């Protein structure tokens, strides 16, 4: 079936370094992508989104890159902080609605002080 | 602004028992979602409401799961009877979803353990 997947289940970085979390998607019809952050015991928290007509979008310390040619999505976190430690999920939707969110399994980011 | 509220936060039951979860979305949000998140996996949509109507329940195991949103605000998700594989975190989310999509805001979830 079609699903969103992640290349790395865990990622460990040094505080202050940049982090890159990758995601592969298989549904070429997907037109909206979202990154969520989930801390232990909490629900997913929206980080940043990108539509399929864009290839880059920047937020505060975060950048999402979309490569539709290879169906790849990445989340870059600049100057990673201990508070960034969490599980990061990418999710995709199709049909222009956020209702049919399909989540990947997640990447656990650990920040070493 | 208050976030999505869910209760209880934790629930432990034995298989074949019944359980119900409650969700209060962000005020003014017309769309409400229930997700199931099994340990180590991403959330999976169970059901989506638009006001008090069901938009998508294609992944809801209807033989044992039911959900309602009678007045278009609060929602209840019920499992009857529960199975061991229902052990998971049940997340509620809401959005304004005005023509074209909007950000989904998640509650803290209810962690269900079925023994």
Overall description:
The complex is a heterodimer of chains A (113) and B (115). Chain A contains no helices and 11 strands. Chain A has 113 residues and is an all-beta fold. In chain A, the strands form 2 sheets. In chain A, strands 2, 4, 5, 9, 10 and 11 form a 6-stranded mixed beta sheet that branches. In chain A, strands 1-3-8-7-6 form a 5-stranded antiparallel beta sheet, with no helix packed on it. Chain A is globular. With 115 residues, chain B is mostly beta strands. Chain B has no helices and 11 strands. Chain B has strands spanning 5-7, 10-13, 19-24, 31-37, 44-50, 53-56, 65-68, 75-79, 88-95, 105-106, 110-114. In chain B, the strands form 2 sheets. In chain B, strands 2, 4, 5, 6, 9, 10 and 11 form a 7-stranded mixed beta sheet that branches. Chain B has a 4-stranded antiparallel beta sheet with strand order 1-3-8-7, with no helix packed on it. The mean pLDDT of chain B is 92. Chain A binds chain B through residues 4, 32, 36, 41-46, 49, 89, 91, 93, 96-101, 103-106, and chain B through 4, 31, 33, 40-45, 48, 55-56, 91, 93, 95, 97, 100-109.
Draw up the topology in text.
The complex is a heterodimer of chains A (113) and B (115).
Chain A: E1 4-5, E2 10-14, E3 19-25, E4 30-38, E5 45-51, E6 56-58, E7 62-67, E8 72-77, E9 86-94, E10 102-103, E11 107-112
Parallel strand pairs in A: 2-11
Antiparallel strand pairs in A: 1-3, 3-8, 4-5, 4-9, 6-7, 7-8, 9-10, 9-11
Chain B: E1 5-7, E2 10-13, E3 19-24, E4 31-37, E5 44-50, E6 53-56, E7 65-68, E8 75-79, E9 88-95, E10 105-106, E11 110-114
Parallel strand pairs in B: 2-11
Antiparallel strand pairs in B: 1-3, 3-8, 4-5, 4-9, 5-6, 7-8, 9-10, 9-11
